[in-house]
Recover the amino acids of this structure.
């Protein structure tokens, strides 16, 4: 799938078409120049629309960021919850969580950077809502690790700290991943799944 | 040490005093608003100077970013080289590299964010120089891991990938670390040193 098709798929749930074009344009602009250096006029221009047409869909630049952040965070939470509720052993579910979470951050690294680095620009109410989604993501991974500790498959002295480190390792893929690099998103996901199983002291490994 | 004293210490090598004030002001402005949204006028204002006085020390905004990035990257490289050249076993040296590298990213998270996230804003020549320093940092950590593989202390199927993951895990501390959080920089360093020894399959652990 090309970059263009992937972008369209990523925002498929945003309707109508004009709103989707604005969101796509905003992600690109925020990623290139940062949120504060981007104007609604820049975004409208990139989407081939007038500032007045933008205003029909989004009253402020912050509303655009909020939509982008919400879609990104809900996707992340879905990925991690699906892994938590899977059928396999704790090790299989943790590996699957890491594999899919990493793949998302690699494939959608432009969006992921905006989602991860511009949290501070959200208005207070929106910020609180997004922080809630992040807590839920953290809880999903923590639950898998706790399952593994309970079955004796994992050996984790500090569950909260290890959960934080696992998520942090995956999220930082968005910073360094390049489509021109040596590893595909799937390969990074496999490598990281193996490293994370080591981090939780998975006994059955190798 | 208070935040103010820590900031002064961080840039102690930048002289004269006016240049140091400008660098400190630029770090704060870039961290809050992003590089592209910051003007040299903003920076001069924060430093209590006129734009003309700024111009004596830095001809462009990019020169300020280059100095900040250079100081930050050289410090990181020093930390990792010192660990590589230390006396201990590979496990002790790797733990020390992680401990000190993490502590730096936690204590100086504002600077570290600018250093890590604004690479793309450097001019081509400056960018190439900084990328060279990053390669040297990567090589220092890789050398410790290779030492451990050679002595049989570590079991690492993918040395390059694991080196990348170790550095990435440490660097992302700058994103999430908060001075108001539950863990001190030293505690995060200890936690991460243990997790990294697991990532390299250190046999002697626990």
């Amino acid at each position: 799938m090309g970059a263009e098709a992937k972008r369209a798929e990523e925002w498929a749930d945003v309707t109508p078409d004009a709103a989707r074009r604005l969101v796509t344009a905003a992600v690109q602009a925020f990623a290139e120049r940062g949120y504060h250096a981007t104007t609604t006029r820049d975004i409208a221009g990139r989407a081939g629309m007038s500032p007045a047409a933008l205003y029909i869909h989004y009253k402020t630049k912050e509303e655009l960021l909020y939509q982008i952040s919400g879609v990104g965070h809900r996707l992340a939470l879905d990925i991690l919850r699906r892994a938590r509720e899977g059928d396999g052993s704790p090790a299989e579910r943790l590996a699957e969580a890491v594999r899919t979470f990493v793949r998302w951050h690699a494939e959608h690294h432009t969006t992921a950077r905006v989602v991860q680095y511009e949290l501070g620009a959200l208005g207070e109410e929106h910020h609180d809502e997004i922080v809630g989604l992040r807590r839920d993501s953290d809880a999903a991974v923590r639950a898998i690790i706790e399952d593994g500790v309970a079955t004796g498959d994992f050996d984790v002295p500090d569950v909260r700290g290890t959960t934080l480190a696992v998520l942090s390792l995956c999220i930082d893929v968005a910073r360094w991943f390049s489509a021109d690099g040596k590893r595909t998103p799937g390969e990074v996901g496999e490598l990281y799944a193996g490293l994370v199983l080591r981090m939780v002291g998975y006994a059955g490994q190798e």
User: Anything to note?
Assistant: Residues 62-199 of chain B form a domain with the Tetracycline Repressor; domain 2 fold (CATH 1.10.357.10).
